[in-house]
Amino acid sequence: MLNRLTLAAALSLTPVLAHANAAKEDIAALFAAMDLPEMVTIMREEGLDYGEQIAEDLFPDRVGSDWPDTVSRIYDYDVMVAGLETQLGAALGDSDVASMIAFFEGDIGQTVVGLEIAARRALMDEGVEEASKESAAIALADDNPRMAMIDKFIETNDLIETNVVGAMNSNYAFYLGLLDGGAFGQDLTEEQILTDVWSQEPEIRTNTIEWVYSYLLLAYQPLSDEELETYITFSQTDAGQDLNTALFVAFDDLFDEISRALGLASSLNMAGQDL
């Protein structure tokens, strides 16, 4: 039987968690320095919007008052924060968390955090998102010098591949949730689901590239070249690489669970069962 670990192995990009856990007080300090609670708040809001999209796509005639409540429970803020803290602590293991805290508590780190959060929230507006994508496309076509730095940041943090894999894992988890709820009966196997998810890879990659460039260009536009280079330099350190990997592991685990729960809830709703 195929499972999440089988998919991860096939994609060859899901890192193995460290054996030791970082100290809880260090994770709490890092959480605060990076303002991850606010990022979770934004992701929860994005999730509630996504829940509306699921309903429109899968059961437009069966959306009752309980569906928004179900989606809200799945994207429970406290559960998301607690899960993310736990997974991040496990993924960081014995990494140099002190260096991560020191950077993000510093002036440039705090500036970066504020800009990233502001850009993420701004992109929730469809008009801003479209304008940002157009600006990024123009900057790429004009060979804007800032884009060379954005390229370097993306390459340093492997942002395209890890985001593509994360999206594919989430899609796979959603399908498994639908399967768990009996949405496909006996007509679809996990192997067929995996094949279908792989078929989505080109579109996911294109969308990921478009979004990553537009987001980073929007977020880092106020930074000077020197400030952005300082951030890139930190990202190239062992601490920066460990943090980047740990964040992807923690968020991917969190959203895989959420996606499977959304799939199950969707399946039950399609069948007319109580959620």
Explain the overall architecture.
Helix 1 (4-11) packs antiparallel against helix 10 (159-180), helix 9 packs across helix 12 (201-220) and helix 10 (159-180) packs antiparallel against helix 11. The chain has helices at residues 4-11, 24-33, 36-58, 66-74, 77-92, 97-105, 107-122, 126-141, 145-157, 159-180, 190-199, 201-220, 225-236, 238-270. It has one domain (21-270). Helices cover 79% and strands 0% of the residues. It is mainly alpha-helical and 275 residues long. The two termini are 27 Å apart. This is DUF2059 domain-containing protein. Residues 1-20 form the signal peptide. It comes from Yoonia ponticola. Keywords: Signal.
What's the short version?
Keywords: Signal. The protein has helices at residues 4-11, 24-33, 36-58, 66-74, 77-92, 97-105, 107-122, 126-141, 145-157, 159-180, 190-199, 201-220, 225-236, 238-270.
What is the fold's blueprint, element by element?
Layout: H1 4-11, H2 24-33, H3 36-58, H4 66-74, H5 77-92, H6 97-105, H7 107-122, H8 126-141, H9 145-157, H10 159-180, H11 190-199, H12 201-220, H13 225-236, H14 238-270
Helix pairs in contact: 1-10, 2-6, 3-4, 4-14, 5-14, 7-12, 8-12, 9-12, 9-13, 10-11, 10-12, 10-14
